[in-house]
From TrEMBL:
Species of the source: Fictibacillus norfolkensis
Phylogenetic lineage: Bacteria, Bacillati, Bacillota, Bacilli, Bacillales
Keywords: DNA-binding
PANTHER family for the chain: HTH-TYPE TRANSCRIPTIONAL REGULATOR SGRR (PTHR30290:SF72), PERIPLASMIC BINDING COMPONENT OF ABC TRANSPORTER (PTHR30290)
Pfam family, one: SBP_bac_5
Tree of life domain: Bacteria
UniProt xrefs under InterPro entries: SBP_5, SBP_5_dom, SgrR_HTH_N
Protein name listed in UniProt: SgrR family transcriptional regulator
Domain Solute-binding protein family: 161-299
Span of domain Transcriptional regulator SgrR N-terminal HTH: 17-69
Gene3D superfamilies documented for this protein: Periplasmic binding protein-like II
């Protein structure tokens, strides 16, 4: 079965044809095209008579219906092959009707498989970018980290600190002493020690993207087995919340692999499939599932969590999940640009506010937001009436793949007001890691998803190296001083501080709230204990399927 043959069938009927047209459609050379045509001719799919002489066209005659034959073959494979192998056929260039039939059939392969072991098979549209806690800059990867690794403590969305790898702690103005649990095993069977914890935290506090968060920390040492001291002479009000973040996950690296202590261990990780298996020696409650498999599917494949016990019919219920928010970031301290002028930024804010309601026409999941980015903190603010400034040169706008729909709204709004722009399109990776691009850009739409606790996540948004604001605000002494207040403010007072800082960002038109995003995930009614946890994703360790008992 060859996708090139399917493409040829779909776009070239029997009749006269030029080989250069076929080569262009198949995106291969004319020499390769000739070889393929001869092969398919010999296999009996078609008859191909090449044109003789210069300017003479060739003739193609189909002998079989390629799509019907391939569809029958794929349906047979779906019944007999593992889902991660058969899923590649969904990427073929099918007609709409055939693709719908195959996707419906393929969808029955997902859900809970309750045989000797309980397994949940989950469709995924993209491979996970990383499973390393220090490099997980996107929510998909960070959610995987939350399942594979543990932190020393955990932090609820209400701000309560709970024990995890550390069972107890003592806090003073200059030191945090952590007492580690005994006999905690990594996924390779080795036992967690104070040295493992120190190694992880030392890498973290000098990590390029996280070191600013860890500036208050002077030293991390161990003076007794299973005891870790974190020293900070200038105080660090948020040290315990800091240890609860995904980046603070504890891991062990050995022979080119990374091991965690979490409820699931990584059995396999490829572009096509990632498999998590329950870690039976987990020091806390063992996951109720035995395994979770993430299998790559096309972008238009419907994501439904359902049981495969009744593949032809299953009732579902929608689970609402916060999927972050979108803001416009303006590079206020880019001296060589007119965006450094407050009146320019305020005028842009003014026209965007008048057209914010239209953003849902471009991004269906977007809910226009004219208040705070922090849920539960309505932040009414006034927008000064500003006369249109003169735009001497185009504004440079960066558009990344994951904000493309909302960015089209931005461009259309600017076109409506005759604001000249220059567009730079970048990948997700460049938007996150290429700081030089941010320096060269006047503005861009940024999507952010908070981890769990909103107060801590907003501070992380202001300071971590993966986010855009630290690069912009770090150029201004006033903002450097403003953000340094967090270190000396008790964590329970951060809500008010966050509200004040956000208002200042909006008043100076550095960050403009645009929208919230909601995700509605269909779950089968057979699935029990559906809880949304880190980054708005379901907690796999708690899911289970109610068995059918006669």
């Amino acid at each position: 079965m060859d996708n090139k043959l399917l493409i040829l069938w779909r776009y070239f009927p029997s009749g006269h044809i030029r080989t250069e047209e076929i080569a262009e459609a198949l995106q291969i050379s004319q020499k390769q095209t000739t070889r393929y045509l001869k092969k398919w001719n010999d296999e009996g799919w078609l008859t191909f008579i090449p044109g003789r002489g210069r300017g003479n066209v060739s003739r193609l005659q189909w002998l079989k219906n390629i799509e019907e034959n391939f569809e029958d073959e794929v349906l047979l494979k779906l019944d007999h092959e593992p889902v991660e192998i058969s899923s590649k056929y969904l990427m073929y260039d099918w007609s709409t009707d055939t693709k719908i039939r195959l996707m419906n059939k393929f969808h029955t392969q997902f859900g809970f498989v309750q045989k000797a072991k309980d397994k949940l098979v989950v469709p995924k549209r993209f491979p996970f970018r990383t499973l390393h806690p220090l490099d997980a800059a996107d929510a998909h990867s960070a959610n995987m980290v939350s399942n594979v690794f543990n932190r020393l403590v955990s932090l609820t969305d209400q701000g309560e600190i709970l024990p995890e790898l550390a069972h107890s702690w003592d806090v003073s103005p200059t030191k945090l002493r952590l007492y580690l649990r005994k006999d905690v095993c990594f996924h390779d069977g080795s036992v967690l020690t104070a040295t493992d914890v120190i190694n992880c935290l030392e890498k973290l506090r000098f990590h390029e993207q996280n070191k600013d968060l860890w500036t208050p920390i002077d030293e991390i040492v161990s003076k007794a087995p299973l005891v870790v001291d974190i020293l900070y002479s200038g105080g660090c009000s948020y040290i315990l919340p800091l240890l609860s973040m995904m980046t603070s996950s504890i891991y062990k690296e050995s022979k080119g692999r990374i091991y965690g202590t979490g409820g699931f261990l990584v059995e396999e990780d490829t572009d096509q499939k990632t498999t998590l298996v329950a870690f039976k020696e987990h020091f806390q409650e063992r996951p109720l599932l035995d395994a979770v498999e993430f299998v790559k599917v096309p972008k238009d494949f419907p994501i439904v969590y359902h049981s495969s016990m009744e593949p032809d019919h299953h009732e579902t219920f929608q689970v609402e999940s916060d999927s972050g928010f979108g803001v416009l970031i303006m590079n206020a301290y880019r001296k060589e640009s007119q965006i450094a002028k407050l009146e320019v930024r305020q005028y842009i804010h003014q026209i965007l506010a008048m057209n914010r309601h239209r953003i849902r026409e471009y991004e269906s999941r977007a809910i226009p937001n004219d208040n705070s980015c922090m849920i539960g903190n309505r932040l009414p603010y006034s927008i000064p009436r500003t006369v249109r400034p003169e735009f001497a040169e185009p504004l440079i706008i960066r558009i990344a793949e994951h904000t493309e729909e909302a960015s089209r709204w931005l461009l259309d709004t600017f076109a409506q007001y005759d604001i000249p722009v220059k567009v730079i399109k970048v990948s997700f990776e460049d938007a996150i890691f290429n700081k030089q691009l941010t320096d060269q850009t006047d503005m861009f739409i940024h999507g952010e998803i908070f981890e769990l606790n909103q107060d801590l996540s907003f501070y992380f948004f202001l300071t971590n190296g993966f986010a855009p604001l630290p690069l912009i605000l770090g150029k201004n002494r006033k903002w450097q001083k403003r953000i340094s207040q967090y270190v000396h403010t008790p964590f329970e007072e951060w809500t008010n501080l966050n509200v004040e800082v956000e208002k200042e960002l909006i008043d100076e038109a550095i960050m403009i709230p645009l929208y919230y995003q909601k995700r509605y995930i269909p779950f089968s009614t057979e699935l029990m204990n559906v809880n949304i946890k880190h980054f708005g994703y379901v907690d796999f360790s708690k899911l289970w399927l109610r068995p059918t008992i006669d």
